[in-house]
């Protein structure tokens, strides 16, 4: 679809910001709402229900009733499978609508909303639907006079709180395994980007997910999110977002009913490029493409680039030549590869880190400024710092924006030590032609995912999550079922 077509369609898009509770679109109990503002040009897209504790109570009651009467939890796995596959099919049928909502809401380029976010989200729902009737329970090895069964059962009412940077995909990572396992779900999207979550709930209902099984409550974290975290009838809470809020979620779980609490949190990922890198052009493309993808608003973004000193100048020359490709553009233009920052708060945060980097003595080689101010939108140039010291804030703290910090090294052991020195442990990478060195380095890097001679390549079959203060949860793969199921042992005396 051409740029003009996306713009024309954006003028007529219908925004329904009401919550979804018990299979119905409803206003917040209080009648309160908040404005949904597009970072593309500052326009008001619509009004969204501001759900609070009263709305949470209604949604939890609906979800609990649905779980207890077995309208979903009691269905055969093959029946849940069919429904989830219909859900994925409907997502594909509405891919242009979903992509447009995603782009208008949080500013990412339409080319990626359509080709990446919708595709990966529907594939996630489909994959868990396909998986659920292929997972077997266990029979324990016992004496002849006993039979011991080990079975997975749904945990019950699941609350999922998701971030704004990949709203549709992060929702799918929770929806897929939680519903496939037979749970009832309450999804709380970020107030910064709630629109696709609300539309997904409608498509799920159309696919045949029973009323009450999938509820969506838009609202603020300190209101709706806190109420879910403290609710005594929520059995499990799955959170993706900042480490600061993740710690609060764990505290709420302990203060309430000891609900299962799973967190996938921030990152400050290290990307290590050795002098014997087998393809320097690929390493540069991987480093630049991964940090500026999604405007740098990715928890696993490789924001710390360690380059061996002997190739640093060559690397930087190639990197600086590539950066203009990522100049921010109109997110509704299919040729744009970097879009808008989600809101003014995040933009101020990113620009503040850039100023701090300059004041700390790092060399600003590219970017560092706001852009496209005439549009009324929120844009930042792709930014690159060289001469960064590991003690600087831009090398220690998660920025969540298009800012790359380059650190050089002469000793790989020292680079690994510095890579591990952060409180985070979400992802890392190493580029080297020596596979023995690559494997040894990967084993030493304290991160949930380590990439070798590439960055960010994976799929739904492998888990995603981190070490240390990057959280304790794992999304994707069959391991995600561990979050949303209980293990029950049944011991039978023969």
TrEMBL record:
Keyword line: Oxidoreductase
Pfam families assigned: Aldedh
Listed CDD domains: ALDH_GABALDH-PuuC (cd07112)
Domain Aldehyde dehydrogenase, residue spans: 32-489
SUPFAM superfamilies recorded: ALDH-like
Name of the protein: Aldehyde dehydrogenase
